[in-house]
Design goal:
5 helices, 115 residues, homotetramer, mainly alpha
Amino acid sequence: MKNLTDLTKQIIKFRDERDWKKFHNPKDVALSLVLEAAELMEHFQWKNEGEIKKHISKSKKEIGEELADVLYWVLLMSHDLKIDLADALEKKMKKNEKKYPISKSKGKHTKYNKL
Amino acid sequence: MKNLTDLTKQIIKFRDERDWKKFHNPKDVALSLVLEAAELMEHFQWKNEGEIKKHISKSKKEIGEELADVLYWVLLMSHDLKIDLADALEKKMKKNEKKYPISKSKGKHTKYNKL
Amino acid sequence: MKNLTDLTKQIIKFRDERDWKKFHNPKDVALSLVLEAAELMEHFQWKNEGEIKKHISKSKKEIGEELADVLYWVLLMSHDLKIDLADALEKKMKKNEKKYPISKSKGKHTKYNKL
Amino acid sequence: MKNLTDLTKQIIKFRDERDWKKFHNPKDVALSLVLEAAELMEHFQWKNEGEIKKHISKSKKEIGEELADVLYWVLLMSHDLKIDLADALEKKMKKNEKKYPISKSKGKHTKYNKL
């Protein structure tokens, strides 16, 4: 299993071979991330639970591609902004553990500020 | 450096300890991904290049948290839908290499269907 | 009932009194529109049909504000780009009537290219 | 110039002739609004100021269609949730006038809570 560093190297190589860094300002990159996330969401639009289940079973490849597109931009932005993404996730998880203590949040989708 | 499998295990443990799986239908998870991507994008709103540079240098931690939030949902959805994300990225990159051959796309932000 | 021209005049007056036109480049305005639409969507996140119904009945004012925020940016962008929005809607409806003939699309949420 | 009531009547007639109300739950409608706003935003992606200007002059019709699509969902949701949209905008503008007094906010894109 490849780690985040390997995956990042691969996408940056792809990008730099095409001389695309000059387009990758943070605003447009964030915008791309939103657009790819929107394309993923579109897969589930207008469908009820049963239809979604069916759609996933026959469109797993396409959904995987959308998730890959989102990951591409997350890794690229983390690289360009010199953010250690694994470390950032680690820290965010610790923060979430405090915001959502198991005893208070178990089985509830209440936002932390209303727990 | 942690790999995607380790990071995924960690977030699924966090989720399952809180008994939140029951909320995580694909539509709402995709919706969360879009909302987190939007929060990331908000960091760059109304700012020109110089202001963005300044903002990044003083808000790196906050931006890292938003990227972590996006990654959280990407990993969670991949897990729940049984999608091998590293493999999906690998395949998508191969596809992109064909869609955007270096010779044709170097230095241009033209969409593949207009190359 | 006010028409689109009156509402547009009102928001442009608000904007120009604050000398904000200089910030309103199309990219950031479109980005604002997405962010406001995301805030609206957040109202329905993690809620099933019954919970949504309940939420609407007690948060109608807040939801109305989000819809107003979206309309604000739609009117502002139409104004700045010199687009006649009522006319654009008129034309789009005519197009949709052709793309989705009643006989073929009745009761179905199939996309026009799959009808 | 048509007012919001007339435009709303027209789109609801279009919708009801196709028997689509049954699909229009608030979550999916909000999701559609986000997707249409994202499509509008895509027009300005990867473009600098000059390229945006050029793009607008040659794609005004397409941009108008995206704005119309957003307006379609705003009007439809307001109708279905029995929200008086013109009234909601009126109230939001009054609120914004208090949040952003001219004397404090003139020429600044500072958020109200930091003024």
